UniProtKB/TrEMBL annotation:
<dbReference type="GO" id="GO:0003860">
    <property type="term" value="F:3-hydroxyisobutyryl-CoA hydrolase activity"/>
</dbReference>
<dbReference type="InterPro" id="IPR032259">
    <property type="entry name" value="HIBYL-CoA-H"/>
</dbReference>
<feature type="domain" description="Enoyl-CoA hydratase/isomerase">
    <location>
        <begin position="28"/>
        <end position="347"/>
    </location>
</feature>
<dbReference type="InterPro" id="IPR029045">
    <property type="entry name" value="ClpP/crotonase-like_dom_sf"/>
</dbReference>
<dbReference type="GO" id="GO:0006574">
    <property type="term" value="P:L-valine catabolic process"/>
</dbReference>
<dbReference type="InterPro" id="IPR045004">
    <property type="entry name" value="ECH_dom"/>
</dbReference>
<protein>
    <recommendedName>
        <fullName>3-hydroxyisobutyryl-CoA hydrolase</fullName>
        <ecNumber>3.1.2.4</ecNumber>
    </recommendedName>
</protein>
<dbReference type="GO" id="GO:0005829">
    <property type="term" value="C:cytosol"/>
</dbReference>
<dbReference type="Pfam" id="PF16113">
    <property type="entry name" value="ECH_2"/>
</dbReference>
<keyword id="KW-0378">Hydrolase</keyword>
């Protein structure tokens, strides 16, 4: 990497590093800088990213924007769910404000007037997908692990995730949302979450070239075919099983398909929050019919504001992240106990608290 492509030296409190590189500082670079937390997003980080994007949008000397993550583990593991859980126990006000600004940032990225480049190396989950997959040039590597893992913590895919997954080929997005499954580079590209595969050892050369060249041309020049994924060979049973409009029917089809991988998927899904599963499926189906990302983010904000008041989000984070016993006690505990009215309540309008993007 050339000297002027090196990131600035951070102080301990710099959770987002902002600088400009290349000739005349033509490339604005954002570096998420919480490597011990795999760069998990908190509210001040979201505000800092937004401020940088707003500044560069007005600056004609900035030609493009790049986002990367500090450390070797990944771009971003998502939102700071420990903090969200702690706030949920106190009523959820801060979580609602965080999500409002985060979803507005996701919309800002999708509509950004200059090329927005994301290096999706390593772990890219939840909120990490939100700050990358809505961009123009999305780079994955052999180390990329991309997922929307929300159902595993009693939550529902957000940050525009239901928009992206609902538009993946066939029912691949439904499979990924309900299982909370992680995918590699090839599958991320085939699902529409990424554009180019670049081996990780070529990233320094790619970053140098981005500092001086057109992002789309540079990415295409450094890219190569990704190693084979797994979803293509499973597409037939995924499309057949997940086309059902009830989680119970999806599970029945998976178990009856005769495919070992389908049976494994059913077992994974059955361990998730029953409420989160039913709301997630409803959100995906509604997102598929929505006219815009903004309308889907509006919907996701309603769902998130409802979820923060339910017991499953607090319990899911406890089981997976706080106590790590991996034994969540969901409430309600079964799919049969989650009725249509329970699901519909998650989509209730928020009145003057609406996000208002759609």
């Amino acid at each position: 990497m050339t000297p002027h492509a090196q990131p600035p030296q951070p102080s301990p409190e710099d959770t987002v590093l902002v600088d400009r590189i290349g000739p005349a500082g033509r490339l604005g670079r954002i570096t998420l800088n919480r490597p011990r937390a795999i760069n998990a997003l908190d509210h001040p980080m979201v505000r800092r990213i937004t401020a940088a994007l707003d500044e560069w949008a007005r600056d004609d000397s900035v030609a493009a924007v790049l986002i990367t993550g500090a450390g070797e583990r990944g771009l971003c593991a998502g939102g700071d769910i420990r903090a969200i859980r702690a706030d949920a126990l106190e009523g959820g006000h801060a979580a609602r404000e965080f999500w409002r600004d985060e979803y507005l940032l996701n919309a800002r990225i999708a509509a950004y007037p200059k090329p927005y480049v994301a290096i999706m190396d390593g772990v890219v989950m939840g909120g990490g997908v939100g700050v990358s997959a809505h961009g123009d040039v999305r780079i994955v590597t052999e180390r990329s692990t991309v997922a929307m893992p929300e159902t595993g913590i009693g939550f529902v895919p957000d940050v525009g995730g239901t928009y992206l997954l609902s538009r993946a080929p066939g029912e691949l997005g439904t499979h990924l949302a309900l299982t909370a499954g992680a995918i590699g580079a090839a599958d991320a590209i085939s699902c529409g979450l990424a554009d180019h595969f670049v081996p990780s050892d070529r990233l320094p050369a790619l970053l140098d070239a981005l500092a001086a060249g057109d992002p789309a041309e540079v990415a295409a020049r450094h890219a190569e075919p990704a190693p084979a994924g797994v979803l293509a060979e499973r597409r037939a049973w995924i499309d057949a099983c997940y086309a059902a409009d009830a989680v119970e029917e999806i599970l029945d089809r998976l178990l009856d398909s005769g495919e070992p991988a389908a049976k494994e998927a059913a077992e994974v899904i059955a361990a998730k929050s029953p409420t989160a599963l039913k709301v997630t499926l409803a959100a995906l189906r509604r997102a598929r019919r929505a006219a815009s990302l903004g309308a889907v983010l509006d919907q996701e904000y309603r769902v998130s504001c409802a979820a923060v008041t339910t017991p499953d989000l607090v319990e899911g984070v406890r089981a997976q992240v706080v106590d790590k016993d991996r034994r969540p006690r969901w409430s309600p505990a079964t799919l049969a106990e989650v009725g249509a009215a329970d699901v519909e309540a998650f989509f209730a309008p928020l009145g003057e608290r609406e996000l208002g993007l759609g």
